[in-house]
Design goal:
By secondary structure, this protein is an all-alpha fold. It folds into two domains: about 55 residues, no CATH class; about 100 residues, Oxo-4-hydroxy-4-carboxy-5-ureidoimidazoline decarboxylase (UraD-like), CATH 1.10.3330. Helix content is about 65%, strand content about 0%. The protein contains nine helices and no strands. Helix 1 packs across helix 2, helix 2 packs across helix 3 and helix 3 runs antiparallel to helix 9. It is globular.
C-alpha cells in the first residue's frame, strides 16, 4: 500500500512522531494528498506547519524539549529526540558547557516564550552555543521563522530515517 492510500489514522500512526508531541501536523498533511513522492510528502508536512495559525505553531514549538534540559536528565525525551541529542554529544557535555547551555536555554525561553530548537544533527555543542547566542539578538518574528525552519529540518531528517 502506498503512502497516498493510507487511511488518516494509519498515516498519523506512521508519521505523527515526526513532529514532537504534535500529531496534528500529520493529520493536516494527510488532507493534502496525493503526495506522489517523498519530496511531495515532505512539502505537505511543511505546508501544514507553515499554514497553521500562529498559536498552533507556538504550541508545537513549546512541545519541544530544551537541549540537554530537564527532560534529557530525567530520561523523558522521545526516542527520536534522545538519539538526536546523544548524536550531537549533548549527553556528554562538560560541566562548563552544560552550565552555558542551561543559561542560554533560560535566556532564550524568557525572550521568545518557547525552547530554543536546533536541528542538532547539523551541530556540535560549540556551534549550538554560538548560534544560540546569535539567535537571542533576533526579533520574535525572525526567531519564530527560524524555529519553524529547524522543526521542518528535524522532521525531514526523521522522515528520511523512517522511509529508509
Amino acid at each position: 500500500m502506498s503512502i497516498d492510500e493510507l487511511e488518516e489514522q494509519q498515516f498519523v500512526a506512521r508519521f505523527g512522531a515526526l513532529f514532537e508531541h504534535s500529531p496534528w501536523v500529520a493529520r493536516e498533511a494527510w488532507a493534502r494528498r496525493p503526495f506522489g513522492s517523498r519530496e511531495g510528502l515532505q512539502a505537505a508536512f511543511e505546508a501544514a506547519l507553515h499554514d497553521a495559525p500562529r498559536e498552533r505553531q507556538l504550541a508545537l514549538l513549546r512541545a519541544h524539549p530544551e537541549l540537554a534540559g530537564r527532560e534529557a536528565r530525567a530520561g523523558e525525551l522521545t526516542a527520536e529526540s534522545g538519539r538526536e541529542q546523544a548524536g550531537a554529544a549533548l549527553d556528554r557535555l562538560s560541566p562548563t558547557e552544560h552550565a552555558q547551555l542551561a543559561e542560554l536555554n533560560r535566556r532564550y525561553r524568557e525572550r521568545f516564550g518557547f525552547p530554543m530548537i536546533v536541528c542538532v544533527r547539523e551541530h556540535t555543542p560549540g556551534s549550538i552555543l554560538a548560534w544560540g547566542s546569535t539567535r537571542l539578538e533576533r526579533s520574535p518574528d525572525e526567531e519564530l521563522a527560524t524555529a519553524l525552519g529547524e522543526v521542518a529540518k528535524i522532521a525531514g531528517l526523521r522522515l528520511g530515517d523512517l522511509l529508509q
